[in-house]
Amino acid sequence: MEIILYLSAAVAAVAFLVLVIFLSRTLKSLQVTLDSVAQTLTGLEGQMQGVSLETTQLLHKTNALAEDLQHKSENLNTVVNAVKGVGNSISSFNTSMQKVSEKVQFEIDNNQEKISQIVQWSNVALEIKDKWKARKSKPSSSVPVEGLSDELPKKRFLRSRY
């Protein structure tokens, strides 16, 4: 029985030795994996620092661009307001011109008879002037006969809109 006890102790020792060998192999494999993960994390940390630096620069540029855009938008608002003022001025000028045009048209309509009389009298005056010039330009020995209109300048007529 003693032998069984020694044999069982020897088997237990061998089993423990096998367990320790397999456990050390597993731990060595785990150590290699953890070293690889540590190296990957170190590389990733370096890359993250680069990305973080680029992100910070991009954020600063974005902020500067936003400020510039805000400034330009404010300037554009003043331009838009100025153009709006010009548009209002042109609109009021147009309204004024329409009122003046309507008033002139009304006065023309009211005074149409007077205007036509003025046109007729001016035609008569121009005809007399043309005849007077024609008589002055001819020698005094030959006096034009009334009704010979071939030698007289043509009559001028003022045209009216009506």
Walkthrough of the structure:
The protein is mostly helical. It is 83% helix and 0% strand. It is built from two helices and no strands. It has helices at residues 2-110, 112-137. The termini are far apart. The mean pLDDT is 86.
Give the helix/strand layout.
Elements: H1 2-110, H2 112-137
Attribute tags:
single chain; 162 residues; mainly alpha; 2 helices
Helix/strand class: mainly alpha
Q: How much helicity do the residues have?
A: over 70%
Strand content: under 5%
Mean of the pLDDT scores?
86
Rg is 58 Å
Low-confidence stretches: none
Query: What overall geometry do the principal axes of the alpha carbons give?
Result: rod-shaped
Q: Helix and strand succession?
A: HH
Total beta-strand segments: 0
Q: Termini distance?
A: 150 Å
Biggest sheet descriptor? none
What's the short story on this structure?
83% of the residues lie in helices and 0% in strands. The protein has 162 residues and is mostly helical.
